Amino acid sequence: MRLTVEPQPVPLTTTPAGVVRITGTRVPLETVVRAFYQGATPEEIVQDVPTLSLAQVYAVLAYYLAHREQVDAYVAARAEARDQARRAHEERFDPTGIRDGLLARQRRQEPVA
Prior knowledge:
Blueprint: E1 12-14, E2 20-22, H1 29-37, H2 42-48, H3 54-66, H4 68-92, H5 98-109
Antiparallel strand pairs: 1-2
C-alpha cells in the first residue's frame, strides 16, 4: 500500500479586523498559544476548548513552532491592545465601588420576611 502525502493548510484565518482565529471557530490564535505557554498539552487544550479538534491544535502549534518570533510578536501586540482597551474603558466607566453599589441595590430590593 502506498501512502499519499499531501500538504495540509494551516487552519488559521485572519478576520477583516486583523484578528487571527482558528479556521471555522471563534477561537483566537492567542488562546492556543497562551495555553501552550502555560504548559498545556494539545489534548488538554482540546479539553479546555472543545470547539477545536486535536488535529487543529497540533497544526496551529506546528505553525507556532515554525514561526515563533512572528507569533510571539503578534500575541504581545494583541495583549497590549487588550490592555489599552481595558484602561480606556476603566477611565470612561470607573469600576470603583460598582460591586458595593450593586449589593446595596440588591439589599434594598429584597423582601423582608
